[in-house]
Design a protein that fits this description.
Mean pLDDT: 85
Number of strands: 4
Shape: elongated
Distance between the termini: 58 Å
Strand content: 5-15%
Order of helices and strands: HHHEHEEHEHHHHHHHHHHH
Structural class: alpha+beta
Largest sheet: 4 strands, mixed
Number of helices: 16
Strand order of the largest sheet: 1-2-3-4
């Protein structure tokens, strides 16, 4: 005896490849059947499906080869005895997870496989009352927009191809776009003028400014980080205190004179004091670790 007799029978019968082959041969639409080499049918594990979703229904997943050369097709067969208005959406969720399962199986897989979701229904209501086109799961108002959105390329913001003068018109997001477009260039000093210009045009919060400076100093490259900060401070008087505080910390630990050499000769207590001061000023922990050479445990002890 089982509390889910419908599911148990469905899995037991459709779990055999020979039976599943007959099922697909009979019920797959002819255009889709023409893509499938049914003699290559083999069962696939379904443990990748979320436990919450898996508990709601029984499912069978088979992979097979395509009749059009190298490739993979997956047939996902779902059993349902109760109509579900969002069943098409659930099938789409399962299909996406089957695609991810395919990619995870072999790192050489670089393209998504076709996944054909099918519903096996035997409920009291007849015929099955809901659409199995997942886009119909959207409301009437949003359905046309959903069809347009999910049948065309998604929006892309590629800052690598945006001209700088175009970026300068993007108001408060311009600073982020400019910095991340040019973060890999050889010397950030070349960006200082544009950063100042944007700070003047679109004032930012102290929190955002600290994040920006931390990012520039951690990820960017400049031979003179203190001079870079001083240049920003001169051009942006309202942010001068914030910038000069960080510049002073860099000067204190000999950032330009050879950080590694200075730290190796320094005493541990001196390094701890510098780190304590930097942390108190709100400088990012990872940046403090990189500059002082202290371990994460040592920095954690300072913050506790």
């Amino acid at each position: 005896m089982t509390p889910t007799p419908h599911d148990a029978l469905f899995k037991q019968v459709l779990g055999h490849p020979e039976t599943a082959r007959d099922f697909l041969e009979i019920h797959l639409p002819k255009p889709l059947l023409a893509l499938c080499k049914l003699d290559t049918l083999r069962p696939e594990p379904t443990s990748f499906i979320d436990a919450e979703l898996r508990s709601a229904c029984s499912d069978i997943l088979y992979s097979l080869e395509t009749t059009h050369g190298a490739g993979y097709i997956y047939c996902l067969i779902e059993h349902q005895s109760t109509p579900d208005p969002l069943m098409a959406f659930r099938l789409m969720q399962y299909s996406l997870k089957a695609m991810q399962h395919h990619l995870n199986k072999n790192k050489a897989h670089k393209a998504l496989p076709l996944v054909i979701p099918m519903l096996f229904y035997h409920g009291e209501a007849s015929p099955y009352p809901y659409s199995l086109n997942w886009l119909d799961a959207f409301g009437e108002t949003e359905r046309p927009r959903a069809r347009d959105l999910y049948s065309t390329p998604f929006p892309l913001v590629d800052v690598t191809v945006l001209p700088d003068d175009k970026i300068h018109t993007h108001k408060r997001i311009a600073l982020l776009e400019l910095v991340q477009k040019h973060i890999r260039q050889r010397d950030l000093m070349e960006l200082a003028g544009q950063i100042v210009q944007l700070l003047r045009a679109y004032p930012t919060s102290g929190e955002q400014l600290r994040a920006l400076l931390n990012y520039l100093l951690q990820v960017g490259d400049t031979a003179h980080p203190r001079a870079f900060l001083e240049r920003l401070a001169q051009g942006s008087p309202e942010y001068k205190e914030e910038m000069m505080t960080i510049a002073e910390r860099l000067r204190m630990i000999g950032r330009e004179e050879g950080l590694e050499k200075g730290l190796e000769k320094g005493r541990q207590e001196e390094r701890l004091e510098i780190a304590r001061s930097m942390l108190k000023s709100g400088i990012d922990v990872e940046m403090v670790r990189q500059i002082t050479g202290l371990s994460r445990d040592e920095l954690a002890a300072l913050r506790s």
